[in-house]
Amino acid sequence: MPNIRMLADKVRLVSEPADKFKTSCISVSMALPMDERMAANSLLVYLLKRSCKAYPELSLLNGRLDELYGAILGAGVAKNGEAQVLSLSITSLADKFALDDESIQLEAAQLLSDIIFKPNVKNGSFGAESLATEKRLLIQRIEEELNDKRTYAFNKCISHMCHNEAFGKDKYGTIEEIQSVKMADVYDAWKNMLSTAVFQITVVGAADEERVAEIFKKAFDKVERNPATLETVFIQRSRRFNRFEEKFPVNQGKLVMGFRAGMSHRRDNIFAVTVMNDIFGMGTYSKLFMNIREKMSLAYYCWSRLVASKGIVLVESGIDTDKEKKVSAEVLSQLSDLRNGKTDPEVLESSKRALREKHTFTTPEGILGWYSSQVTSDEILTPEEVVNGIEQVTMEDVCAAVKKLSVDTVFMLSAQEEAENEV
User: Considering the entire predicted model, what is its pTM?
Assistant: First the structure.
């Protein structure tokens, strides 16, 4: 169990002591409501990554990272339920390899604190040139996702399925919103983030936890906190079935089927739902892989993905466009068989073994990712607790979980008659 302490109102430090790795990691996750500030928030986290007051130019900041034995600074934006999560992280050499008893991880923690709390801001501006650069790069990221037709179809299904829910929004905001962001918007987003975001500082390594806590507590003591309430709408059963289609010059159609998982919150029946999804469409032993892809050769790929933070399951498949009805019907048929227990009993053990391996983390980055992804959860679940919960799941539990699934939305990205090479 990691060490957990509160540093301020909705500011949590999660520390997993580990001295068996060559590297150490520290991240700061900042969860915010998915509102009109999303585009400004997205630009903000990448602007923060560029510099801070102590190192006001990118070259100087990179020089400081080199001094920390080639430490790597990362930034990202994600959706976690109906929260937008900004993250900044540093991966560095473990302290035991440093010269002169230097604590690289403490210095990395201080640098990360300075980047967040003491940015390179002059008169409320992060710099017009820096903002223009980050706008261009962020729009480029979005366009790359649009050009990846598999990702495009997946996101489109979610946007249609959750069009009246915050989860249907793009994690970065739209291109139009990004283009319209002004410097004052980014500065306001920074002030708002410090005041209202739900924070989690996650540390993996043999750092002095007390001193890491002291670094961030000192910074938060200077901030007037008014944390936002983060809520996610869970729809347990679909209200109506919808189908959407778009045509593109692609050789391979993309079919995405969205299901409501019958969950009322992210931990609702989570172990049974996790095993159910794995048997349905995650492993090479799953019903979708073994039947639709292998035995029937109806799809180039076919698998399911559980988004527990929203209580939905999505089935993705690459198919010939004219096989959509047949594939859709067969997905539902496989679901029906699983609901009725028509599954090899050995598959349950295969699933548990695979999930056990999935929750056995062998890198500090894996451990960091596991804990930092729980920034919006009130309680922390350890990998061991998840594995123990999964081990208790029976086939009856799996069948009961399947019975709660209801198909909501189908999105079909169809190939045009004269398809060009797929992008």
Answer: 0.94
